[in-house]
Every structure is written in structure tokens, then in C-alpha cells.
């Protein structure tokens, strides 16, 4: 076989095996397999409860600070109503539920959505861009834990950010001390006038 024929055969073998080698190099750690969605999801099935939790996100205020809301869309595909009884962040911080978080059978609950029941934590160790560990506890389905991304309450997350009521500082009117002095002076004058009047009346 001539050199040119041998070179051609080697090139053909290399071209034929290139796709196989490329597929093997991807493996289970390929970069495309490491892409994760912006929001977490999980499910929990127990007895008559079959819950799917989608779009799990922790939303801070616009500056990226606590308090923060835990938001999730909970769909109940079971045959019985269930109730979210607790939300815990990082294993220790309990969220405060603003109302009864009932998930009706065949229905859903958008936790911390606009005009919905909110789950608010007073403190948060993580900053936007980091993951927090969230545990959801239900009356019937039990508990499930998931890693959820923390986002600042801006842009599409603005309506899910916690609402902090403004603090009104109590103030004392500046005229109070002066009014007190004026009242004291008026009382003293009235007393003096009464005394003088009494003396004039008793003089023969």
C-alpha cells in the first residue's frame, strides 16, 4: 500500500471515531448538565396528599437584605385538602405565616404571592445569588427539604418582596413645656387675686 493510501485510511479512521470520542468526553459531568434552573422544585406524596412545589425562591428586600419571603407555587393533586403548617430556613429560622396556608385538593397556593398568604423570615444568612435550605412542613403530607436560590426583590421579584410597615416615631409637642409654665402662672395669679379679694371683704 502506498503512503498516500495509508494516509487516507488513517484520516478516515480518525473522522469516523471523532463523534464517539466527543460523546465520551461529555460524560455525566458535561457543562451542559451542570446548568440549573433559577428556581427549585420538588414534590411530596403521602396518603391522600400529592403535592408539587414549583418555583421555590427566597426573596429579600430590594437591597438584598432581610426580612425575606419564601415563595412557592404549591399544587395539590391529591384527593384531600392539606395545610402548610411551617416553613424553616437553614434548619433553624422559622418563617411567620400571615394566615392559614391551605392547599385545596385539585387546587393550588402561591405562597408569598401578591395578596396571598406570606411566609416571612426575620433574618437570612445568605445573600442574593446564594442558595438557602428550605423545609416545608404540611399537616398531612409531612416535610420536604430543598435548596432554593435567594433573589433580591427587584424586577420580576418585586411583587414577592416582603412589605415592611413604616415606623412612626412618637414626638412631644414643643409647646408643652411653655403651656405648663403658662398654666402655673395663671394658677398663681388666680390664687393671688382670690386672696386679695378675701382680704378686702373681711376689712371693716
UniProtKB/TrEMBL annotation:
Superkingdom of the organism of origin: Bacteria
Organism expressing this protein natively: Streptacidiphilus cavernicola
Keyword Signal annotated: yes
Pfam family membership, one: PCuAC
Protein name as annotated: DUF461 domain-containing protein
InterPro entries recorded: LpqE-like (IPR007410), PCuAC_sf (IPR036182)
UniProt region (Disordered), positions on chain: 170-204
Gene3D superfamilies noted in UniProt: PCu(A)C copper chaperone
Transferase found in the keyword field: no
Annotated keywords: Signal
Signal peptide span: 1-22
Amino acid at each position: 500500500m502506498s503512503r498516500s493510501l495509508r494516509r487516507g485510511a488513517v484520516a478516515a479512521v480518525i473522522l469516523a471515531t471523532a463523534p464517539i470520542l466527543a460523546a465520551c468526553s461529555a460524560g455525566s459531568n458535561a457543562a451542559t448538565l451542570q446548568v440549573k434552573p433559577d428556581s427549585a422544585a420538588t414534590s411530596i406524596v403521602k396518603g391522600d396528599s400529592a403535592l408539587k412545589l414549583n418555583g421555590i425562591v427566597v426573596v429579600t428586600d430590594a437591597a438584598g437584605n432581610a426580612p425575606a419571603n419564601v415563595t412557592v407555587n404549591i399544587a395539590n393533586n391529591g384527593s384531600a385538602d392539606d395545610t402548610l403548617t411551617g416553613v424553616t430556613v437553614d434548619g433553624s429560622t422559622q418563617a411567620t405565616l400571615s394566615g392559614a396556608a391551605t392547599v385545596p385538593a385539585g387546587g393550588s397556593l402561591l405562597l408569598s404571592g401578591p395578596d396571598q398568604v406570606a411566609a416571612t423570615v426575620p433574618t437570612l444568612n445568605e445573600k442574593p445569588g446564594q442558595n438557602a435550605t428550605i423545609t416545608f412542613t404540611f399537616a398531612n403530607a409531612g416535610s420536604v427539604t430543598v435548596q432554593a436560590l435567594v433573589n433580591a426583590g427587584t424586577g420580576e421579584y418585586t411583587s414577592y418582596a416582603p412589605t415592611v410597615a413604616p415606623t412612626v416615631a412618637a414626638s412631644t409637642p414643643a409647646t408643652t413645656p411653655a403651656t405648663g409654665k403658662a398654666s402655673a402662672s395663671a394658677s398663681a395669679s388666680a390664687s393671688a387675686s382670690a386672696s386679695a379679694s378675701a382680704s378686702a371683704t373681711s376689712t371693716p
